[in-house]
Design a protein that fits this description.
By secondary structure, the protein is α/β, with parallel strands linked by helices. The protein has a single domain, classed as Tetrapyrrole methylase, N-terminal domain (Cobalt-precorrin-4 Transmethylase, domain 1), CATH 3.40.1010. Helix content is 36%, strand content 21%. It has a 7-stranded mixed beta sheet, sandwiched between helices. A two-stranded antiparallel ribbon has the order 7-8. A hairpin with a 7-residue loop joins strand 7 and strand 8. Helix 1 crosses helix 3 and helix 4 runs parallel beside helix 5. The longest helix has 14 residues. The radius of gyration is 15 Å and the shape is globular.
Length: 195
Amino acid sequence: MPPLLYILLYFIYFTCKKRYHFDRTKVLDTPSVFVFWHGELLMLTFGYMDYRRSKNVDTMVSRHHDGEIATRLLNLLGAGAIRGSSSKGAMQALKSAFKSLNLGRDVAITPDGPKGPRYSVADGAVVIAQKKNVPIVTMNCKATKAWRLNSWDKFSIPKPFCTLDFYYSDPFYITEDNLNDAKEKIKERLMKNAF
C-alpha cells in the first residue's frame, strides 16, 4: 500500500501549481518544531522539503495500524518517523523527539492528532519546543480543489491539477510562555490559514 500511495502523492503534487507564502530571509538554520493540522497533512511533507530544501525531519506518528502505513510512506519520501502520540507512547515519543533535535533534525507534529478534536492543541509540541528551547514554525496547505473526507479532521485530499498554497509562519519561540499561552499562540498562527 505505501508504494501506491507514494506514487499517488507524487502524481498529485507534481500536477499541481504551487505557491509558497513565507519570507525566506527569516528561515532559521536551527532544528525546529514544525506544527500543522492533521486534516492538512497529506502534502506537507513536500511543503516541508520546499521550505527547508532538505528531508531532515522526523514526524510524530501514532502507534495505531494507520501509523505503520504513514511511517513506511514517510520513509519512502526520505523522512523519518517518531512512533507515539499524546494518547499512546507519549513519553517514548518525547524522548525520541529530543534525540532527533539533538542530532540536528527537525520534528514535525500534528497538535490535534491522532484523534482530535479538530483544531485542538495538545501539549506535545509545547513541551518539546520549551524543553529544547527551539523555535516553532506553523505550516498550512490549502488546495483550490480537494476531496474532504467525512472524518473528525475533515481530511483534505487535493485534486490533481489544482493549486496548492503553502503557508509558513515566521519561526517563533514559546520558551517563556506558560502552557496555555503557548498553546494559544500556536493555535492562533495555525488558524490564520486553516482550510
